[in-house]
Amino acid sequence: MLNYLARRILVMIVTLAIISLMVFVIIQLPEGDFLTSYITELQSQGEAVDKQKIEYLRAQYGLDQPLWQQYLTWVGGLVQGDLGYSFEYDLPVTVVLGDRLLLTIVVNFFSVLFIYIIAFPIGVYSAVRQYSWGDYGLTLVGFLGLATPNFLLALILMYLANRYFGTSIGTLMAPEYLDQPMSFGKMISILEHLAVPVIIIGTAGTAGMIRRLRANLLDELFKQYVVTARAKGLSEGKLLVKYPLRMALNPFIADIGNLLPQVVSGSVIVSIVMGLETVGPPLVKALQSQDFFLSGAVLMFVALLTVIGMFISDLALAVLDPRIRLQGGAR
Amino acid sequence: MTQPHRYPFEHLRADYLRAGGGVVLCLAPFAVGMPLSGGAWVLLGCAALFLLYGLRTGMRQMTRVWVTDDGIVSDGPIKTRIAWETLEDVRLSYFSTRRGSASGWLQLRLKGAGATIRLESTLTGFDDVVRCALRKAGERSLALNAATQNNISAMGLVTADG
Fold first, then answer.
1. Would you call A238 exposed, middle or buried from its count of C-beta atoms within 10 A (0-12, 13-18, 19+)?
2. Which of A185, B27, B35, B157 has its CA 20 to 30 A from that of A12?
């Protein structure tokens, strides 16, 4: 296991290094930088541009340095916890993001949990009762969730939540807790407001999960060992839990890593529509204004979440699932 | 006397490089003045893990595995012996850092009389060791789990229960 752990962490570090390079290159691809956009904006408004100030800012934030040097400075800062300075907000990135990082993790964690809690029983039921009315009905509901755009669902649920439960529309907490330090009351308020965004973000992922678990379980249910166990008199419930379900669960666990980036990118639009205090809205704003440090920090945060998700699912698989070697290859 | 099985240096070299690379990558930020704050502890933990990995690789280099009619002995900095007559469990697992990849490695885990020996497929004559362990497991009527049986089949060996 130590061998596996060490190799896996090394792969993770290299992956993050490559992602950081790609993020840097992609953000730098559009012509100019935040300051050139800022100058153009000022000029279009007919305002005077203080060239000296611009040059000073360019030098201060290292924008006059060659790209490779800018990259190394940025990565060096990231590793040391210095996320840089947001031009758009005129504040350090850590201040801009603040609680948003934690809230993003909370929203996405509960969304993934929601997907699993909903998809698991439905997937098992659909497989065990294949082609029944229940299977068709639940499949239809799953597909409806998949086909409905998140933002539309967000608008509908926001209306219903406000109309029938009196929950304030938008944001992840009651207005009095905004910009306040974390407290018990704030935590309760966040949990209270979490239901609607979690349902919206999670619904799209649920259908895929249901279909995957259903297909995996159906594959297992018709294997010979299941027939043998049934012939030996094992009860249906015990048989299901002991063998096929365990085998069908492996791809389900493996999907944690794939699920996270989907959920995170899906939550960006929902966050904008609902005005949630996650990293989504600042990311979009930063990308529009070429605020390199802010967008880079958010993208690296999302990448880190994804890589950690993959790592957790790989570890869970290595522990829970005794690996089976493919033909040939191992040294 | 039979020849001992050992881990060849050409395979261990890659492990040493991984361990060294991991330690350097994890400690490099401190060399450029990273303070000991939240994230730093994660890096220090990873560095410790890579150090341990390097240490384990070193121990592997010194390890010799003897398979005799009486039992199996892993002789090195830590000496472990399992007599075949006390063999309780045989497991063959496959590990890969890339999903669905066939370029991973196998691990044979033998348990008996409170001792555990773990051998990896980079060991010289690994197939012979597996074959011998399976024969002894068969003689003692030990049950092999499904993954072990599949891995044995993938190696082209016949399982203990035929």
1. exposed
2. B35
**In this structure, what token pair is assigned to residue A202?**
């999670």
Looking at this protein, which amino acid is placed at residue B100? G
Closest-CA residue to A144 (of A202, A75, A207): A207
Q: What pLDDT shows up at residue B48?
A: 93
Per the CB < 8 A criterion, the answer to whether A293 and A302 are in contact is no
Distance from CA of A2 to the nearest CA of B (A): 7
Give the rounded percent of residues in chain B with a pLDDT score beyond 70: 93
pLDDT tens track for B121-161? 889 988 889 989 888 888 888 888 777 887 888 777 765 45
| Sequence-ordered list of residues with C-beta below 8 angstroms from that of A253, at least 6 positions apart, any chain | A313, A316, A317, A320, A321
Kindly state the average pLDDT of the residues B39-62.
89
Strand partners for B103:
none
- B17/A contact by beta carbon, under 8 A: no
Helix residue spans in A166-291 (DSSP H): 184-221, 224-231, 236-242, 244-254, 256-274, 280-288
What is the pLDDT, as a whole number, of residue A168? 65
Q: Which residue, among B10, B15, B16, B6, has the nearest Cα to B126 in the 3D structure?
A: B6
Structure tokens given for A30:
């559009």
Is B104 touching A (CB cutoff 8 A)?
A: yes
pLDDT in tens, B17-37: 999 999 998 888 888 777 777
Strand partners, B109: B91, B118
> Which mean pLDDT values do the consecutive 10-residue runs of chain A (331 residues) have?
85 91 87 76 74 78 83 84 82 85 85 88 89 89 83 84 74 76 80 84 83 86 83 83 76 73 77 84 84 88 85 77 49 47
User: Helix, strand, or coil here: A85?
Assistant: strand
Q: Distance, in angstroms, between B39 CA and closest chain A CA?
A: 7
What is the CATH superfamily name and number for domain A100-276? Answer: MetI-like (1.10.3720.10)
Pick from A10, A321, A330: CB nearest B104: A330
* Residue showing tokens 């003692």: B140
CB atoms A9 and B91 under 8 Å: no
* Torsion angle (degrees, nearest 10) of CA A262, A268, A269, A275: 150
Distance CA A236, CA A242 (A): 10
Backbone phi and psi for residue B120, each to the nearest 5 degrees, phi listed first: -110, 160
Q: How many CB atoms lie within 10 A of CB A300?
A: 19
pLDDT confidence of residue A312: 83
pLDDT of A321 reads 57
Among A10, A74, A304, pick the best mutation site for testing chain B contact (most B Cβ within 10 A).
A10
Q: Which residues contact A255 (CB under 8 A, 6 or more apart)?
A: A209, A212, A313
